[in-house]
Amino acid sequence: MSPELESLESLANRPRYRRGQTTGHYESYFQRANHPLRPLAFWIRYTVFSPEGRPQDAIGELWAVYFDGEAGEITAAKSEVPIDQCKLEDGDLRVTIGEAQLLSGRLRGSARSSSGTIDWNLVFGGNQLPLLDLPERLYDTRLPRAKALVANPLCTYDGTIVVNGSVK
């Protein structure tokens, strides 16, 4: 990856959450992929949520969904951890929610709920410029409140996903 692309990706992945802020905050890092030939897909999200006026109630969340069109099954799982077990670091992509990590080029973790268990250990990469849905200057302003961007479009994944004990 070129130094310019690495710099843009690092800027796009920069965390906006600041521990203890009282204004309320919601920040998510998604990873998702569709199999190129088969009806299989996953969606994994690392999230920090801090309610307005209650920074002590902030939490980290792990969400995972596995779509198996061959078996006609969708499995979803969600785990929550206190904010003191979470880190969002500046610089290279480095998000930690409990024991789960999302790093530049790698993600691992698990989400468990009554509806299912999903574990993942994946590497990913690509060489596309980040895709911003808004002008760059709006990503550090209060409005609009929701700001989507794709730090690494068209990336590819390799590794394992285990759904309810079955390797996919």
Short description:
This protein is mainly beta and 168 residues long.
Task: Give keywords.
single chain, 168 residues, mainly beta, seven-stranded antiparallel β-sheet, 1 helix, globular
Written overview of the protein:
The chain is mainly β. It has 1 helix and 13 strands. The protein has one helix at residues 3-12, and strands spanning 25-34, 40-50, 59-68, 73-82, 86-88, 94-97, 100-103, 106-113, 116-125, 131-132, 149-150, 156-163, 166-167. A 7-stranded antiparallel β-sheet has the order 5-6-7-8-9-12-13, with no helix packed on it. The mean pLDDT is 89.
- Main sheet, how many strands, which sense, barrel? 7 strands, antiparallel
Mean pLDDT across residues:
89
Alpha plus pi helix count: 1
* Unreliable sequence segments: none
Q: In percent terms, what proportion of residues is strand?
A: over 45%
Q: In angstroms, what separates the terminal alpha carbons?
A: 29 Å
Strand order of the largest sheet: 5-6-7-8-9-12-13
Shape: globular
* Helix percent band: under 10%
The total of beta strands comes to 13
**Radius of gyration in whole Å, from Cα?**
16 Å
Q: Helix and strand string, N-terminal first? A: HEEEEEEEEEEEEE
The assigned structural class equals: mainly beta
